[in-house]
Every structure is written in C-alpha cells, then in structure tokens.
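FORM 12-B: Structure-to-Sequence Request
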C-alpha cells in the first residue's frame, strides 16, 4: 500500500543548526514537497533533515493499542510501580485526548509528569503539528498497554544539544526514576555532525550506565534512509550500540482476521521500516555471535534494528487527537510498544533491565521471527529471513514468554 494521497513532506521547523525537521504526513498544515515514490527523483533537501518515525494514514481507523497488545498476547500483564519516560522534540499533548483514549480502551487513566528541557514545555498545537501527533501516539500506546505504570514526558526540541540534555536529565531523574526511555525520532547517520552525534551518544551511554533501557525508532524510510544515492543508510540514534532499535511489521493478527503467520516486514513502497548497518559504529560485542552480511561498503557495522513490532497500515493504531479518532502508523508506534514490554518485565523482576542487548542476543527465541518481506527501495535493501535480519531484527514480542524471559535476566 502506498502513502496516503495528498501526503506532503513538510518543513515544519528548523533548529539553530539549520537541520530541518521533516515528516511524511498528510495532516500538517503548510507547504511542502509531494511524497516521492522509490522510483521517483527525490528533492535535494532530503540529505539534511530530522525525520519522524511516524506516518499518517487515511484508510480506516486501525486497532486500539489495547487490541494490538492483545494480538501479541500482552493483555493483562501488570507494570505497576514502573515509570516510562518519553522524550518529545516539540509540540505537546491534550490531557483530554489522553483521558478519552484511556476511556475508549477501557483502561484507567494514567499519571503523567512533565519535565521541561531548556525552556521547552507542553505546547499543544491543537493536533496540527507532527509533534502533537507523535506524542499522542507514544503516550496512548503506553497508557493503553501499561496503564498502571507512570509516564514522564521530557519536553525537548530538535536541537542536538537539547536532545542530549533530555537524555541525560532523564537518566539522572531521581524523582520520577524512569525504568525505560522511548524516543520516536531520528535521522540518517550522514545528516549528523560528528560532535552532535558524539554528544547524544555520550548521553545514551550515561543512561546505560545508570541501568535505564533506551528504545529508539529505527525509522520509516526503508533501507535507503530517505537518501537516494544507491547505498543503504540507517538512522541515528537507533544505530547507537546503546539503543534498543525498533523496526516495523505489517499484517499483525487482529480484528481484520489476518493470522500471526502473515506478519511480514513493513514496506508500503514509499514508506517502511529502515534497517541495515551503521557506518558510524562498529559491530558491538553482543552482535558478534550472529551472522551479519557484507554490505556494499565492506564489512558491516552495528546492525539495525534489534527488535520489531506492528508499524504498518495493517492494522495501524487508532488514537485520539484533538477530540477526533484517527489512524497512525510507523516504527514510532513499535517503539513505545516495546517500552511497555520492558516495563512489564521490570515490574515482574522488581528491578530495571538496563541495556539488555547481550541477554537478548543470547536468547533470541524469546521473540517471534519475521521471515518474510523486505525493506528494499530502488534496488537497495535487505530481505527478512530466519534469525536476525536487517528488517525486523530478532523479531516481535511473543507475549508473556518474552516478558517472563526478560524478567529472568540475571
């Protein structure tokens, strides 16, 4: 399925570094470029931008987060006593939307705290900005799946220095004590200045040192990363060895009757899960036991993603934005879903998981493999298959089995 008709790449704002924030969304007001199919010429501006791992869809309303959790066998698993931190890079949310979504899902209303970063705060724009859409999606997925957990939102901006500050402040937040952080934004590794990338990487290392798990969206630009130079590209911060990178699938079992066996790599032609190998980070020790294919640039670096979950139009996520229900998709949905799974495991074990990559790769059967599909675009990309792959990593949640196995981590 292609991107919705009329979708635009919107230049919604620029930070002081001149890096433009871009999103594929048919709902944001403003002027922009028509969405480019993979066989079309791309605007020159594509090589410098921050991309949200979020896609808007106009077809149907999808499934509520609780229904998607049920499809993965995650219903009724408690995460009480845990805290999930969401890093927002702009905009805000309407508490009435969050409460309405919880009511419609039949879940108790959640507790939310706000932490402003460098003067940024909850600045809801009536659902007209991509930031509003993103935060609504993140919060409502967490609220629907683990309503007894507390949520803290760190309001940052797209400035790399603010992103790094948000991560550090969250990692050292002794009042809210987040067990897991969720970030649904990123950009091709090539679009980051070395100093900015190193600053954010250092902040992520701080989170790992303080035993805080950090899940990051792999991106929605297929294997090209939205850069059409004939080579694959992955997104940072997802490519950081400290990130738990989340890719996306399509065709999840749900109300539409599709069976779990039909779940495949998310690839809708103009959008789909980003994945591949880092040009900035070497293969980490925890991935040295798996077979990583060679790439056009020689031996691969850190493989992306680590995990995956529902991200495509089939079924899509049903959320409430500015009082209206709508359908959203993207690896930014898979990311808070995995944050919720991690919170479940933290609650069950009574302590944090931290950066659990080594345990994850030593126990891949805690996930269900996705073995069909690809993230190829313009002849560039990768195919799914048994074991780890550069589309969906080790796979998707296997219900209570995944939670139990993570909780048993030494």
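FORM 12-B RESPONSE
SEQUENCE OUT:
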């Amino acid at each position: 399925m292609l991107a919705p008709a009329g979708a635009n790449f919107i230049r919604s704002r620029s930070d002081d570094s001149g890096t433009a924030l871009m999103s594929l969304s048919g709902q944001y007001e403003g002027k922009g470029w028509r969405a480019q199919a993979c066989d079309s010429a791309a605007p020159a501006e594509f090589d410098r931008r921050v991309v949200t791992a979020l896609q808007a869809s106009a077809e149907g309303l999808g499934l509520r987060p609780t229904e998607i959790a049920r499809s993965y066998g995650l219903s009724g698993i408690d995460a009480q006593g845990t805290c999930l931190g969401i890093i927002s890079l702009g905009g805000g949310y309407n508490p009435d939307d969050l409460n309405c979504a919880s009511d419609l899902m039949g879940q108790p209303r959640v507790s939310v705290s706000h932490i402003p970063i460098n003067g940024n705060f909850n600045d809801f724009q009536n659902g007209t900005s991509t930031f509003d859409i993103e935060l609504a999606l993140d919060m409502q997925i967490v609220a629907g799946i683990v309503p007894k957990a507390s949520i803290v939102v760190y309001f940052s901006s797209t400035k790399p220095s603010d992103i790094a500050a948000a991560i550090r402040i969250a990692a050292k937040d002794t009042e809210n004590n987040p067990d897991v952080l969720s970030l649904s934004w990123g950009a091709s590794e090539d679009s980051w200045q070395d100093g900015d990338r190193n600053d954010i990487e250092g902040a992520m290392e701080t989170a790992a040192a303080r035993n805080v798990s950090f899940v990051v969206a792999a991106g929605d630009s297929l294997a090209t990363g939205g850069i059409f130079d004939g080579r694959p590209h992955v997104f940072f911060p997802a490519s950081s060895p400290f990130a738990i990178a989340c890719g996306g699938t399509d065709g999840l079992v749900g109300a539409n009757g599709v069976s779990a066996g039909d779940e495949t790599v998310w690839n809708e032609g103009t959008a789909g899960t980003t994945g591949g190998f880092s040009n900035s980070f070497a293969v980490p020790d925890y991935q040295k036991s798996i077979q990583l294919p060679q790439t056009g640039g020689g031996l691969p670096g850190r493989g992306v993603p680590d995990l995956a979950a529902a991200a495509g139009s089939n079924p899509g996520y049903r959320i409430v934005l500015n009082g209206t229900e709508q359908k959203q998709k993207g690896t930014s949905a898979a990311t808070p879903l995995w944050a919720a799974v991690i919170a479940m495991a933290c609650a069950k074990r009574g302590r944090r998981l931290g950066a659990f990559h080594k345990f994850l790769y030593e126990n891949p059967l805690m996930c269900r493999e996705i073995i069909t599909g690809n993230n190829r675009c313009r002849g560039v990309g990768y195919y799914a298959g048994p074991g780890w792959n550069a589309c969906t990593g080790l796979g998707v949640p296997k219900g209570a089995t995944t939670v139990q196995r993570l909780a048993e981590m030494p």
